[in-house]
Amino acid sequence: MVEVVGVDHLVVSVGDFETSKKFYAPLMEFLDFGVEAEYEGMMGWANGKTLFWIAAADEQGRKRKYRKGDIGFHHYAFELASRKAVDDLGAFLETNKMTVVDPPGEYYGRNYYAVYFTDPDGMKLEAMIWAPPKPARKRRRKQ
Questions:
Q1: What is the mean pLDDT of residues 113-117?
Q2: How far apart are CA 114 and CA 24, in angstroms?
Q3: Parallel, antiparallel, or unpaired for β 34-39 and 75-79?
Q4: pTM to 2 decimal places
Q5: Burial (0-12, 13-18, 19+ Cβ within 10 Å), 52
Q6: If you compute the radius of gyration of the chain from its CA atoms, what whole number of angstroms results?
């Protein structure tokens, strides 16, 4: 039996490479990914665990817009380290006028905390963590 030990990389085809590069470059830097390599019509970032690439769609691919629900890529979820990191990314997205679909919050129950957003082609991206909310601190009464 062969064991898969992780996902090495993902490549997303984009409609306008330069527009997508302007979107992804600051996002990936904020997420602590460094540039792995850049070629004509292709760029990748790495964080030591995974690689994320964008590549210019070919002429046939640029004839129609991306539509979530078609066969193929649905969305990509970045797993973050804390709820605060999800909130920080949500603030970054808002500050940079990136399209937020669903703001930071609990989804699928109290233990799933995420923010959902789209890239320039309308592809859905997500940042999330499986983590219950921190218990509320009890206030001490002054005596």
A1: 97
A2: 19
A3: unpaired
A4: 0.88
A5: buried
A6: 18
